[in-house]
Amino acid sequence: MNYPFWDVPLIGSGWVIGLIAIFHVMISHFAVGGGFYLPMAEAKALREGREDWLRALRDHARFFIILTGVFGAMSGVGIWFAIGLAHPESTSTLIHNFVFGWAIEWVFFIVELTAAAVYYYGWDKLPRRTHLIVGWIYAFCAWMSLVIINGILTFMLTPGASWLGAAGTGQEAAYFWQAFFNPTYFPSLVLRTLVCISMAGVYALITASRIDPIAEPQLKDELIRWSAKWLLPSFILVPVCFFWYLASVPESQRALLNLGISTIGQGTFTQVTRAATVVVMTSATILAFVYFSAWRNSRHFNLGRALCVLFLAFAATASAEHSREMLRKPFVIGEHMYSNGIRKQEVERFNREGYLANSMWLKTDVPPVSLRQVAFGREIGPETTANLARGELMFRGQCLACHTVEGYRPMARLLQGRDRQAIMAFLKTLHENKPDSPYRSYMPPLVGTPDEIEALADYLDAILNHNVKTRSGHIAQAGKTNF
């Protein structure tokens, strides 16, 4: 392990990324779709000589540049900050393998921001034709940013056989294009482009809903109906593209959907299934709501109704991104790096030499800051203290990326009712990682020597069953058994 861990109490580091990413995706997809919406709407207004449309579009352009140029850019920086802390190993891999891809994307992004500023501030200053050209320059650069980012995002699910064959040899960068145009690249690009188009309509409904229906009834009716049409391509083509995408996903990852469906009552791994269900339900609700509330009753479509559509779009987007992330389990980079940052090729060496021995950050010679000295009626001796410290380091290095003690995916609930022997049996199952293991499809193997795994079992038993406070500041429930 070449990088330190990041302990975020209660919600875990993964949800820090998730919350920022969902917010960013909602805006970044609008930045792409809205980039096409504005010049197309402006061209229509110029063809028809509609000055009222141009006035409304200028207001929409102001809303667009503030939301995308300020909040979109800030949340993008936030994602880099969060992934660098939560998943430094995988972030390093992406940077090293796609450094020129990132550079190309940043060039498009700079041109995109510049074009957006020129488009808005040159509204009444540039000739109409020049202004429209600037709008199309922005649209092209925004979509090209998506084209680049999509290759890197899909690589994390399906790196491709060529890149995986070179992984660990130092020649990975030579397979840049094979990794970039990976098996899920094109279906994902089409899906995201369709979502961008629908987001353009969703956000356009917000500004159109604020038009006074008494002063300008025709304008409001036309803009709301025209904006609502932007949702149609997505709802018509997304189901087809979704099956195309699933057909490109490895069978092992598609099996997670089947696992979630077959164990829906037990809750073994239903997150991805439930999230996919939410996407379908919210998408259908958006279509029905927009048709009855906006298309058929456009003049009474107010801001509150528009925000309802935006909220439903947020739920659909959040669920879709969550499903995409969960499909990668147990990997963060498919068939290469597990979600806790351990590379697949390192498992055997860590089991042989030790996990803690190969980490520059998880050192066992650092004494714990605050192991509670009055556990279950007697003091903890130095030997037990050192053993619990090693167990805590194992937990931080291999479990903390996905679990907390008493927050999101809590160990307190997952291991509830298990004594030391049962906890050790569970850890042994994770360590052996046999083909018939019920956890193999969505949890990384537990690596380390037998002594390290025993230490982890002692640590989990101590914090869950003996009210021991650790360096992380977690305090478990009252003691149950003797240590």
What does this molecule look like?
- This protein has 483 residues and is mainly α.
- The protein has 2 domains: 13-336; 346-466, Cytochrome Bc1 Complex, Chain D, domain 2.
- 66% of the residues lie in helices and 1% in strands.
- It has helices spanning 12-48, 51-86, 88-97, 99-121, 128-157, 161-166, 176-180, 185-209, 217-228, 232-248, 251-262, 271-295, 303-326, 347-353, 382-398, 411-414, 420-432, 450-465; strands at residues 331-333, 337-338.
- Strand 1 (331-333) and strand 2 (337-338) form a beta hairpin.
- Helix 11 (251-262) crosses helix 12 (271-295).
- The protein is elongated and about 80 Å long.
- Residues 365-378 and 473-483 have low confidence and may be disordered.
| Computed structural class | mainly alpha
The parts where pLDDT drops under 50 for at least 5 residues are 365-378, 473-483
The tally of structural domains comes to 2
Report mean pLDDT, rounded to a whole number: 87
> How are strands sequenced across the largest beta sheet?
1-2
Beta-strand content bin: under 5%
Secondary structure elements and pairings:
Elements: H1 12-48, H2 51-86, H3 88-97, H4 99-121, H5 128-157, H6 161-166, H7 176-180, H8 185-209, H9 217-228, H10 232-248, H11 251-262, H12 271-295, H13 303-326, E1 331-333, E2 337-338, H14 347-353, H15 382-398, H16 411-414, H17 420-432, H18 450-465
Antiparallel strand pairs: 1-2
Helix pairs in contact: 1-2, 1-5, 1-8, 1-13, 2-3, 2-4, 4-5, 5-8, 8-9, 8-10, 8-13, 9-12, 11-12, 12-13, 15-18, 17-18
Transmembrane segments: 15-40, 61-83, 103-121, 133-157, 189-209, 230-247, 275-295, 302-320
Protein name: Cytochrome bd-type quinol oxidase, subunit 1
Family: Belongs to the cytochrome ubiquinol oxidase subunit 1 family.
